[in-house]
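User: Okay, second chain of the day. Same drill as before: sequence in, structure tokens out.
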Amino acid sequence: MRLFTASMAPYPRRVTLYLNEKRIVLDRQEVDVHGMEHKSPAFLAKNPAGKIPVLELDNGDYLPESAAIIEYLEELYPAPPMIGRTAEERAQVRATDRVADEVFTVLSQILLHTSPVALLIHPGLVQKPDVGPALQPVLDRLLDQLEQRIGDGEFLAGRTPTIADCTLFALMEAVYPAFGYELPKRCRRLRAWYDRFQRRPSVTQ
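Assistant: Same drill. Structure tokens below.
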């Protein structure tokens, strides 16, 4: 198998964090997103959506979408489990990952329409400043849910790292330095989680 990826883009990073946590070794091919390689005819033949990551399977088929790739690999490499061990654990992990993914979507839209950095990344972008204030209460509610879900645990959804940690960390790792964003001070548990997780071997390797 071969993973078409881009080093620090959040969705591909979500998959590479997962791979590193599981110690799964795959051939990885870097896609030049700045050169728009992901929009080239050759890449569109792999994924008509023109998005990364994409996993090339052993039979020559291509699997897009980070969540689907992770689910597929979890079936092939169940140990150590990162989507829970029991039915209840799996349900709780997926519920937490769903919230983390919503944070991903909402925060991305807020920054896209309010940050000057977004204009540098997307030349010609027409920002709609009203989007930020409109979505901020939604983001606040989602972060409060995660703050409650993590409780006093080390990870977002249990005693061991899960796909939820990969989802949220991939986003925060991207927006902290690039956009100067930080988790709100009221989210002390999430802020402590971020500080812990960024020191894990899966992040630093």
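The radius of gyration is 17 Å.

User: Thanks, on to the next one.
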